[in-house]
Structure formats: C-alpha cells, structure tokens
Design goal:
This protein has 384 residues and is of the alpha/beta class. It is 37% helix and 20% strand. It is built from 14 helices and 14 strands. Helix 2 links the parallel strand 4 and strand 5. Helix 10 crosses helix 13.
Length: 384
C-alpha cells in the first residue's frame, strides 16, 4: 500500500543527511541494508563517447544543458587520446536546450569568422554569431546524425556544420524549431514569453517550420510527415525552388523548416515484427536483462569493458534462457517472426546486460552496429 510518492518522500532530503535503505535483489532472498548519504544527483547530457574503429570516434549528445560543453570537450579529449582523427556527433532525439552551448560546440569545428547562426525578426535587427578561430577540432572530419526529433540547438549545430561545408549531415529531416523568445517578468512572479525573432543557418535558411496553415497543422506536422511517407523514402519530400539555398562551397541545400540531411536514411523496420513488439511492450527484454545480471553479477562485475562483456555473453546461452523466461510470461512464440527479429533481440539483450555493468559504455557499442543511420554515418565519414 506504499505509493511511489511515499517512497520518493522518504528517500529525498537535505544534502549530507543519511537514509537507510533495505534492498531485496530477488524474491525470497534476505534484505540487505545500506545507509546512503544524500547528495546531488548528476544529470549527464553526453550519453557516451567511444572509438568505433582506429580513427573514428562517436559522441552521443542527449541535450544542451549547462554542463554539455564541458562534457563534450572531455569526450573529445578522451577520444583524441585514443588517436581519434574523425568524429560522429549523434544528435538524434536531442530536442535542444541552451543556445550558447550549441554555439560553443560549433566553434570547436569552424574556422575564424565562419558564420555559426544569425537571428532576425520584424522589429529585431539581424545579429550574427561567428566562430572565433580558437576551436580545437578544426582539423577533424565530422559527421552529424539527426532525425525528426532533433530540434532547436541541435538544428543550429547541424545547420552550421552543413552550410559551412564543414561536414556531412546524415539521417532524416529535423523537427524545425527555431524561434527566439524574450521573457518579460510580471509583478506576480509569472512571465510572458514573446517571440521576437527567428534563427537562421549561415546559408540563410529559417530553421523554424511554418505556421502558415494554422496551429493544428503545425502540431500535427510529424504525423503528417509519417503518413506522407517522408520517414521511409526521400522521393516523398518535394521542395519548392524558392526554398533553395547555397552552402559556402556552392552545394544546394533546402529551407522550409528543419535541416534536410545530405545523406537521407529511411526509418529502419528490417527487424520489426509483431512478436518483437510484444516483447518490447511487455518489458520482457529489459526485465530479463536485469534478472540475468543479478544471477551472474559476481562474474560480470569482474569485467571492465564492452568487448570483454560481449565476448563472454556470446559464449553463454542467453537467448535460450530468454525464450524460456518469455514462455513463463505466457507470450506465444512465433518461429517465423523470431527468425526476422532474432538479431535485434540478441543485441538488445546483451546491450541492456552490459549497460547494467558499465553504463552506456556497454549499451551503444553493442546496438549501434545494427543502426542504419550509424552505419551510413560511418560510410560517410570514411569517404574522402
């Protein structure tokens, strides 16, 4: 009869104070008691950074927060120490955040006086932001991965890299959110946010998608794109010639809201089947992975990197144990659909198990090799 709110209220408290917690790892086992000192919980915005091959690094940026730039520099320094010469920056699902952080990150890759972004509005004079030439990554090749959920600061970063011909953008057209808002405080403590300008990429493209067809069309834009087939085929995307712009090097890019990638990658449904979706929606993959780690924690805790963990798991009967577990949950096995989804199910099981041991350093390196956008990004960065 204890609610989640009750639990949270008991756990939370003043920093430096103590809280006693009893943990049962498996039903029927004894309670293990811990005394925990309350403190600040760090919220990281760079999910992972690792070397994909001898020359190529990968950095996943979840959002643009106060610590993101510092985290990004730390990730780059780590990769450089491993002889990284080129980097993939993954902005997929990144809905944005602090503008100055995105600008600082762009500055690392651009030469002095290259335009990063500018703002302009009806009563708001144009304001340009240029690179200062002090960036430490001007010699590194870069590829940016985006999708339909990349928005705002993510689009500023991708647009600056693309319009300056500094790197290649891979994925699907981004969300299209680029409004400058001024906050006006009111006497009662509330505030009004007034839109005063829009963000533009260096080539002059407006990042913000149009409100011309009304609010309803605007808010249903992603669903419209999906129904129109934009997530699956580039041929369904038609741009008006009036939206044509030119990059610094003379390449044609298009405006109209969002950033259209240089390399379009359709949403991958290769491994998706109703059987796989049942496993996902029931939480079976995740819950099995947790229980597997608990049963094998002593062995797994001795392992320090993803290669060692994956090598160990590849020799275990993980999939067979999982299918036995799923059968106990009354999920009917479908042989044909399992054959289609097996590779993805196997990768997810091992990725979640590895994440429980070494966090995201174990998760992304196992899943990314099956990710079509990641694969195309890797192809793009290796091209001369």
């Amino acid at each position: 009869k204890v609610t989640t709110l009750d639990v949270m209220n008991k756990l939370r408290g003043e920093m430096g104070t103590l809280v006693k917690v009893g943990v049962v790892r498996r039903p029927g086992k004894e309670i293990v008691n811990y005394t925990i000192t309350r403190g600040a919980i760090p919220m990281y915005s760079v999910d992972v950074s690792y070397m994909v091959d001898e020359r190529t690094g990968y950095i996943k940026v979840d959002r643009f927060a106060q610590t993101t730039y510092t985290e990004f520099l730390t990730a780059l320094a780590k990769l450089r120490s491993q002889n990284c010469k080129q980097v993939m920056v993954d902005m997929r699902g990144n809905s944005g955040g602090l503008l100055d952080v995105a600008i600082s990150m762009c500055n690392e890759f651009l030469a002095k006086d290259e335009l990063i972004v500018y703002t302009q509005g009806k009563s708001h004079k144009r304001q340009d932001v240029f690179a200062d030439g002090n960036g430490k990554c001007q010699d590194m090749k870069v590829v940016v991965l985006i999708d339909e959920y990349s928005a705002s600061a993510s689009e500023i970063f991708a647009g600056a890299i693309q319009d300056n011909d500094r790197g290649v953008v891979v994925g699907r057209r981004s969300f299209g959110k680029g409004l400058v808002q001024q906050q006006i405080p009111l006497p009662d403590g509330s505030a009004v946010r007034l839109t005063v300008a829009r963000y533009y990429t260096p080539a002059g493209r407006c990042i913000q998608k149009s409100y011309d067809n009304g609010n309803e069309d605007y808010y249903h834009d992603l669903m419209t794109r999906y129904e129109h087939g934009e997530f699956f085929t580039q041929d369904s995307i038609v741009f008006n010639d009036s939206l044509k712009y030119t990059t610094k090097g003379g390449r044609t890019v298009y405006g109209g809201g969002g950033i259209m990638p240089d390399v379009f990658v359709p949403r991958d449904t290769t491994y998706l089947t109703p059987y796989y979706m049942k496993l996902r929606s029931s939480g079976s993959i995740y819950s099995f992975s947790l229980s597997y780690v608990d049963r094998n924690r002593e062995v797994l805790d001795e392992m320090e990197d993803v290669a060692e963990i994956k090598s160990y798991l590849d020799k275990q009967a993980v999939m067979q144990q999982f299918l036995t577990y799923v059968a106990s949950k009354k999920i009917v096995f479908n042989k044909r659909e399992f054959a289609i989804s097996e590779k993805l199910i196997d990768a997810e099981l091992k990725a979640y198990i590895a994440r429980n041991i070494i966090d995201n350093d174990g998760f992304y390196p196992i899943l990314n090799p099956l990710d079509e956008v990641f694969i195309k990004g890797l192809d793009a960065i290796h091209k001369k």
